[in-house]
Amino acid sequence: MVRGARAPAPAPSSPRMKATPVPESASTPDVPVIDEPTITAAVDDALAAISAASGTAELKQVRIAHVGDAGVLSRANRAIKDLPKDQKAAAGKLVGQGKGRVQKALAARQAELAAAEEEAALAAETVDVTLPTDRRPRGAAHPLTTLQDRISDIFIGMGWEIAEGPEIEAEWFNFDALNFDIDHPARQMQDTFYVAPEGSGQVLRTHTSPVQARVLLERGVPLYIGCPGTVFRTDELDATHTPVFNQVEGLAIDKDLTMANLVGTLDSIARALFGGEPVTRLRPSYFPFTEPSAEMDFRCFSCGARQGTDHDADPACRVCSGTGWIEMGGCGMVNPAVLRAVGVDPEEYQGFAFGLGIERILMLRNGVADMHDMVEGDVRFSQHYGTEI
Ligand code: DAH
Q1: Which of 89, 124, 159 is the last residue of a domain?
Q2: 162-179 pLDDT per residue, tens
Q3: CA nearest ligand 1 atom 3, residue
Q4: 173 lines ligand 1 (CB under 6 A)
Q5: pTM of the entire structure?
Q6: What total number of domains does the chain contain?
Q7: In whole angstroms, what is the distance from residue 103 CA to residue 47 CA?
Q8: CATH number for the domain harbouring residue 371
Q9: How do residues 231-248 score in pLDDT, each as one tens digit?
């Protein structure tokens, strides 16, 4: 007896299967006659189906139908063992050869169809590299530019004007007008890029402060201006220094301005830049163009050190290093000598000035750890910040 399709195995302890076993014949499909016409017909059927298959998926169905367990050839093959002994060899040969022909045809057709399919796929995916393309790489404004614009907006929001000055600056504006002594160390070669030839009287401006003198001459008083721009010093590039960097200068000249106005202005800028409740701290310092002069610190916006105190700063704060304060730059009341140099009467007009480093603001505000990222020009850095920071 030959079992065609295997019945599911009964559970080992199934009492029903033990009591009433299903007769074997009940699940036995037709056993094909194993003779030449039957096998040849089965082979011819299979070969016809194989050559008619139009793709590898269809060929797979043909394979299942014709050489799968339920196919005539497989069923015949399984029935050979039940034939009388003297017929087994001839039947085995007949079925075996037939099956062999079908397998061979299947393999050949499979190769043929797979190759055709691959060729079609390649043709479909062909890229014509000669076609014109509009896939231009997309850039983004550099975050320093965006921040500079934002700072300008803060000045404009306070009702101030924006002014610019040249990057190649007259030594007179960069130093003399700002009351730098002829022997001031900043004039020495290690700080300043001098423009050739020697004695040209021109430098790459070392700060944005010369714009103070320029606008006072050009626009007169009263005056409220912000001057963002690039400045140059002979520093080596490292994680926190660069020979080319950006500052923003603030200058207010009017009647009756005091240091209280300076502190109030700095508080407004701190709030606009970093948010939160600003507190500005001034520490005595020296600049030739201000008197008195101060270094200004903003209360750390990151660890939220309490108003004006430093004892409750987060010791692990990466922005203020646990001090509760971040150093922002220099400031002071404009030195009467500067006003006199540009023809303003210091008895009538006074004012204050300050200078902030834009790179430093970006580092603190946006967590940029290394100055190199700002100057290397990798578009991914800019794109990370997008057009808004
Ligand atoms: N120009 C100074 C510098 O680059 C910064 C500065 C200090 C600017 C005091 C000012 C000021 O306007 O009042 O180091």
Answers
A1: 124
A2: 999 999 999 999 999 999
A3: 207
A4: no
A5: 0.66
A6: 2
A7: 9
A8: 3.30.930.10
A9: 999 988 887 788 999 999
